[in-house]
Design goal:
312 residues; alpha+beta; 7-stranded antiparallel sheet; 4-stranded mixed sheet; 6 helices; 21% helix; elongated
Length: 312
């Protein structure tokens, strides 16, 4: 199996809970209306805090219950990828390596790609981690949001997992050989990476507190969000839509700093994608005359060329 070249090309977006949670002990709600989730100044440590009277019903009690919570975004994940086309029934092979930064607070033990909701054929593999392929999910299980690219679509999770006792990716380590074989052409998609214990509470919370916690227990809030390449476009996808989506993803990578706005290749690619996205002809082809300047640009060029190759 061809291993991915480990080139840093994706950036984690950690949850900015410190902008949502109020200081512990303060009386006001946060800007997003969170009354019971608070912080003590450390932007990575949060607490559930509420009056004991909410549990006991004793309105005379002044005791306050405080429980620490831990989210799943305590790693520093980066995903490197490559995609090739093979003469197989599932022709597109996506290879990934997942790394955890040296300053991460927790080991990575799970990650998932968002794949199209109609995908019931892609297969996953890895020599050590367990995996859940799209085909094993219900056809209506379109609950995975594209948080990294915000294109408004919902898909399925293709997931790999291990345990903290088996083969986690510790801070400063990396692991390759995550593979997806798919009939779907490449496009920009979201990876969700879990590092941490998750939200655990030792007893039943009052309903108001439980409802507030539920707003956090969404993948885009609780886990690290990473922009990457994966299966996205089926045979019915219009070239104009593919080009428009690719332009959105390339521009997002420029905004994140993965691709350079000053690159001659990137500028010409964005221009070519804009032309395709607005072309009236469905037979228009991608034309980029400037060669990629580095490894990431080469892999981007290979992926976008596969995505927009004429259907034979």
């Amino acid at each position: 199996m061809q291993k991915p070249r480990v080139v840093m090309c994706v950036f984690a977006v950690a949850l900015a809970l410190n902008a949502q949670a109020r200081p512990c002990g303060g009386g006001a709600e946060s800007s997003l209306g969170l009354r019971y989730i608070c912080t003590k100044g450390n932007p990575e440590e949060y607490f559930v805090r509420f009056p004991k009277a909410m549990l006991s019903g004793d309105s005379t009690s002044t005791e306050v219950i405080e429980v620490p919570i831990e989210l799943l975004n305590l790693g520093e994940p980066a995903v490197s990828w490559d995609v090739i086309k093979r003469p197989e029934e599932l022709p597109y092979r996506y290879s990934y390596a997942l790394s955890n930064g040296s300053h991460a607070r927790r080991a990575i033990w799970s990650w998932a790609l968002v794949v199209p909701g109609e995908d019931d054929s892609s297969t996953l593999s890895h020599p050590l981690w367990r995996f859940t392929s799209p085909a094993s999910l219900a056809t209506n299980a379109r609950i995975a949001s594209q948080a990294a690219i915000s294109d408004g679509t919902l898909g399925k999770f293709a997931r790999w997992t291990t345990t903290l006792e088996e083969h986690p990716i510790e801070p400063g380590q990396a692991l390759a050989e995550f593979v997806v074989d798919s009939a779907f052409r490449p496009g920009w998609t979201t990876a969700y990476v879990s590092a941490g214990k998750g939200i655990e509470v030792p007893f039943e919370m009052p309903s108001a507190v439980h409802d507030e916690l539920a707003t956090l227990q969404k993948p885009e809030n609780e886990q690290s969000v990473v922009l990457t390449i994966g299966p996205k476009f089926g045979p019915e996808s219009a070239p104009r839509w593919i080009a428009s989506d690719w332009r959105l993803g390339v521009q997002k990578m420029v905004d994140l700093g993965g691709l350079t706005a000053e690159s001659d290749y990137v500028r010409e690619l964005l221009h070519a994608l804009e032309q395709l996205a607005t072309a009236e002809s469905q037979t228009a082809v991608l034309t980029v005359r400037i060669k990629p300047a580095n490894g990431l640009e080469e892999r981007v060029h290979r992926a976008v060329s596969l995505a927009l190759a004429p259907v034979k």
